[in-house]
Amino acid sequence: MRIPKAIQNLIESFERLPGVGPKTAQRLTFYLLHVPQGELDKFAESILNLKKNTLLCSICFTVDETDPCSICSDTRRNKTVVCVVEQPLDVLALEKNGKYDGVYHVLHGKIDPLNNIGPGEIYIDQLLQRIKDSTNGNSIKEVILATNPTMEGEATAMYITKQLRINNSKLRITRIGRGLPVGADLEYADEVTLQRAMEGRSDY
């Protein structure tokens, strides 16, 4: 049986998305085939407006509808503390917690030499310039490195730390705590996680 061109095109489009394999792409396509046309039109409109109605904040580079974004323009936020994350999704995750009242800087990636991603391909220079320019009453006093605990995330954090130390010796640089998640068993944890948990121990 020959698959209609319209179906094949959509399957191929879905396959380009991260984490979507051929079978999942086929299931999604055939699911949409049975969705009422009105819902399908709304879905298509949402995709069309994704880029049109969003932009990058010129300060922190997160995605929002306004520039500056709602976080950077919020006068209640502590502008002296900047949390550095890899992706805009990381901002959403930290904001769900509701405990952090500082601002962010989104790198839009991590240093990954195997994929030809160096410091110049992500927003590191903009972070360094942002800290250099902060000389008013809201001058940045602390940078929290919240890159993921992967090899690339660690390399990115180390590179940023080195650059910040060169330019500003008084700046406080911290790394988010890493270790065992709540409900985890010690016997199943890997060596690196256990090491981080021991290093990050606190008074009880």
Descriptive account of the structure:
By secondary structure, the chain is α/β, with parallel strands linked by helices. It has helices at 5-15, 22-33, 37-52, 88-97, 124-133, 151-167, 191-199, and strands at residues 55-56, 63-64, 78-85, 102-106, 142-145, 172-175. The chain has two domains: 5-53, Helicase, Ruva Protein, domain 3, CATH 1.10.8; 75-175, Dna Topoisomerase Vi A Subunit, Chain: A, domain 2 (3-Layer(aba) Sandwich). A four-stranded parallel sheet has the order 4-3-5-6. A two-stranded antiparallel sheet has the order 1-2. A hairpin with a 6-residue loop joins strand 1 and strand 2 (63-64). Helix 1 (5-15) packs across helix 2 (22-33). The termini are far apart. The mean pLDDT is 88.
N-to-C SSE series? Answer: HHHEEEHEHEHEH
pLDDT under 50 segments (min length 5)? none
Share of residues in strands: 5-15%
For the sheet with most strands, the description reads:
4 strands, parallel
Give the mean pLDDT.
88
Number of helices: 7
Features:
globular; 204 residues; alpha/beta; Dna Topoisomerase Vi A Subunit, Chain: A, domain 2; single chain
How do you describe this structure in short?
This protein has 7 helices and 6 strands; from the N terminus they run αααβββαβαβαβα. It is an alpha/beta fold and 204 residues long.
